[in-house]
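User: Assemble these into one structure.

Assistant: Restating your components, then the assembled model:
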Amino acid sequence: MRLSVNQYAKALYASVKDKSQDDISLVVANFLKLLRKNGQMKSAGKIIDNFSAIWNKENGIVEADVTSREALDRASQDGIKKFIMEKYAAKEVIISNIVDEDIRGGIIIRIGDELIDASVRRRLADLGNSLGF
Amino acid sequence: MNTKDYIVDQLKKQLENFETVTQTEKIGTVVEVGDGVAKISGLSDAMASEMLDFGNGIFGVALNLEEGAVGAMILGSYEGIKEGDIVKSTGKILSVPVGDMMIGRVVSPLGEAIDGKGEIKSETYYPVEKIAPGVITRKSVSVPVQTGIKAIDAVIPVGRGQRELIIGDRQTGKTAVAVDAIINQKGQDLICIYVAIGQKESKIARIVAELEKRGAMEHTIMVVAGASDPAALSFISPYAGCAMGEYFLDKGKDVLIIYDDLSKHAWAYRQISLILRRPPGREAYPGDIFYLHSRLLERSARLNENYGGGSITALPIIETQAGDVSAYIPTNVISITDGQIYLETDLFYKGIRPALNVGLSVSRVGSAAQTKAMKKVAGKLRLDLAQFRELEAFAQFGSDLDENTRRQIERGRRTVEILKQDQYEPMAMQNQVAILYALTNGFLDDVAVEKVKSWENDFHKYLKSNSKETLEMIAEKKELSEEVVAALEKAIKEFKEVYQNGN
């Protein structure tokens, strides 16, 4: 039976969970051997992506892409972190800041397939629509 | 208050009332695009056949819901969409604007005007896909659709709420039959919707021009997916046309919809399905190709009085390849519809136009809707034709036949001649009854076959000028009572005298 990328990732997570550093390197080495035996080395990249998604989910880590007009300072980053922690009941928030002048102001937060658009560009578009342009 | 202040005031008010709400949206990213279909990862809350917003005014429809990805068809041009684009779900099922202002317009399957007569604004939207009316809401057909074509109204009558297939090879006059049916509804209570699916734009332009010339656009909506439009638009156009019809159905009105043609619709759906990697079946059509047409045609109905009493009559068109009616799509649609009008190339080139094969054409429920007058003359007509067909092979040995057979053959020839009718010349019911009465009662037996056509033309002219009350009587009573028959026979005899003297 061919295993899917997701199944590999889940299996890997289950075998490294609650393990010590040494055990983990052993598990990873064995896992790679298995991948090579099954001829699945080419999907290693996807397995890593899936694995980190599972790891984040299980450990309450949320990765957020935050778009703003200028680079965010510490204080606003902390504010956003706090907001996301409350909204998603996350233990840890990793923010990667994208600077885009086109949004004119405000921020856009993207987490997985959810998007919170609080940019000035969006508000202007909404205003335009409501006035019938 | 002067005007400037007024404007500024209004502007301020509008701005005051404006507020934006920031809310969480579900998004996905395009991972694959090609040939009008996109694969999108994410969009975990997308519904089946939900509208998806690709940005820049381009929308799509979710068709395949898979684990972690959504397969969607793109409505409109897909050149601007690239890998990595963000797609938002809208939470709306694909719908089209409907309403009275659609009448007289040429629109795209999404309800946008494409006739250059200005934007169509509508408050009401109907979903494109809708489950057909159920058993308790329906009623059997009882009122006829007058197509104005003698051969159809007499032999293959169509009732309101019926689905009658028009089938035939290319260039046999399928569209002509449908267009004549639309033209004949001028000044009557039937709203017509012509749905062009993958048709040549030049052909559509010709039809629109003809309908406009004859004042038939006043009760007609044209829904157009041209040959150059993406397959997705061809695919939704019949459903969109049907949704526009359902608006009038709900208002208790009668609607006639022409789907021209469903073979191209099946091709469009096959294309989308194959690109979405759904498994192909017979003739490479996907497994749900039957349901594709059955759910569309099932939406034609005649509702009973408790539900408004409206109706949707469907005239789907199927183009066969070299007369092959046993191909996949023709057999499917034949089995779904309540009968078929079968047009043949051979007849067309023999000069019998409309090239109707009366033997193979049937209407399974339409006779219940025929007017009494028509039923009476049509019964004899059918018999004459059937006998003629059996004897036709012997017709070449003219001299060796007994008197009775010869007479039947002669009658048959005249019947065929009378059933010929030029395009764009639909005939009123009362005129049809009059000429068919004259024919089936032997008044034309002494007219030479070549002269039958001109005899008929003069006869109608005569009735119009000298015997108007007879026509009115038929139109009003809709049955051949003794009184009507007497008046009709008198008119025919008078005309024959005039005609003979004239020659």
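The interface with chain B takes residues 110, 112-118, 122-123, 126-127, 130-131 of chain A (CB under 8 Å).
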